[in-house]
Amino acid sequence: MYRNLFLFLCFIMVLTGHAQSIESPNRQLNLTFHVDNGIPYYSLLYKGKIIIEKSRLGFEMKNIPSMVDNFSILKSSTSAFDETWEPVWGEVKKIRNQYNELEITLEQGSPKRTVIIRFRLYDDGLGFRYEFPNQKNLSYFTIAEEITQFNLGKDYTAFWIRGDYDTNEYNYTTSLLSEVSHQIDAATEEISAQTPTKEISVQTPLMLKGNGVYINIHEAALKDYPAMLLELDSTGVILSTHLTPDPLEGKGRMQTATQTPWRTILISDNAADILASKTILNLNEPNKIEDTSWIKPMKYIGVWWEMFIPNGGSWAYADTSNIKLDEIDYSRIEPNGRHAANTENVKRYIDFAAKHGFDGVLVEGWNIGWEDWFGTMKENVFDFVTPYPDFDLNELKKYAAQKGVKLIMHHETSASIPNYERRMNEAYQFMKDNGYDAVKSGYVGTIIPLGEHHYGQTMVNHYLRAIEKGAGYKIMINAHEPVRPTGMHRTYPNYLAAESARGTEYKALGNIKPDHQTILPFTRLIGGPMDYTPGIFQTDFSYYDPNVKNRVNTTLSKQLALYVTMYSPLQMAADLPENHERFADAFQFIKDVPVDWDDTRILEAEPGDYITIARKKKGEDEWFIGGITDENKRVSNIRLNFLDPGKNYIATIYADGEDADYETRPQSYTIKNYRVNSKSELAIPIARSGGYAIHIKENSSQTN
User: Fold this and answer.
1) Residues designated catalytic
2) Among 153, 192, 406, 546, which is most exposed with the fewest C-beta within 10 angstroms?
């Protein structure tokens, strides 16, 4: 009935010259655009069900008349597109990019101005953006607010974090949209450098479910534009764009010809389809790096976790303050004895990496300036090229090369952008001169220049500038505390991963809920890979200090599963080497699991409850499966029908033990081998906040 009503309305509006519509290639999604009393609107149906009701489009402006009304359709056109492309790295070997497009050119009355709205309708969702062509009456303009609505028309269960201009490292809250306003204060945890919006808003990607469908709202190809939040109306069912402001309250300073990022809506009646979607990637430009032979997905370990555990190491060389880089003489300062990035300790990590086949070793705290790096609003905080006295750069360079291990650079900027940008060329050249091919950058703290935000237009441009410049030096980027990804790794595949959410370090600094990892793939990871840093085997911190009650709220087996469920081409074995060696049999899975894939199958998925994913190793007939759950125990029932028919395989299953529990017995696990084939079905019990990991290899000695 809804579909017939929709088509009838489309027919009437077309007759009156006000509406245009397109269908997705599989004809399950229907988009309609029309102008009503000079105001542009769009709406969206899925299988005849209204997903987005009549929703406004337009812009409030600061320095010119606004572009919210007095519009008419000047012209429109439709087209279809279908290609298949191969990513440099990824979850699958090939990606199909198929959509139907509707291009609407709107003309506004005196002074005459035009804007193009481009809609692309895929089988699993919609992308649309605004384009401002060169024209006589529109050259430079400043946006006061983008008026893009997502009128859901119904209340949905949402998986959300508080709208904030500077951090998305909140725990997720699950509630109805109508309840967000009542729960937002409780959801606003204290985090450094946070700037929550005054308005009731949430961040994207926003995952919704209800009324028989799953909906995900985000953006794609964010560049030269502020990041989008979603502001809720009083009912909670109409969401509107809320852009991150600059210090003068501008929300995008533009010059024609230009365009906005794509606004994206993914839709399915199966949660697994949301995880499998490649629409956000497809809305980004193709790869701009001609020679990609130097871009290598990698597994790494690092001098990192020991700085978070009780009685652990330190980033700083000395217990002092008031450091001036051009005046300090560290040879005259007494070391604190806890500095972790010292030559002998780094060699220990290099030895471990070489022994177990890891590609790289991250070293944090190697460079001078850590004594007063945080909370001082200091501009000249690091120089990115001068090591501490106990870090022998040349010796470690030779040692790592002899062992066949790459050292990974660390650039913590302390959010001082002018300092980093004026030193970036020197810092990248220093990396190349000393054999570093990858860098983990950090943006902890309040942004300098003051008044700028982590998610504002200036910082969005900075993050991209670092990626582009890194590509020029053949350097791979892993950014922490940047704006959340929007699929730009298709265009710049040297952008391997980012943090941009609450990651493993919060297991030490605070609390991560047991359902956190069952939500992140539906939210943060929709835009791109996350450097989540899994692999913590010693989950109870009282092991280090009886007085410390912090714990990692997962079982050991769940930590293994995260290497499959939390996709990234850059994966860290985050625990201390000695903890990995204590559980050498379980550590074998981390050694075996790859970081680049030919195929991915979502076997089970329900946001906030459970996820099970199977992935096929690049170029090999080997599969890896990871399954996780929230705070509730469950039995995971999966079929192995993705295996090649007629072949026999050996499945090594790393599972929670019978008495496993994330609070009482997190290190209880079993490892068993089974013969399986494409007809096999498995039923695997999972403990509270537990998981399992499976490695499947062909059993060439067996035949059917």
Assistant:
1) 505
2) 546
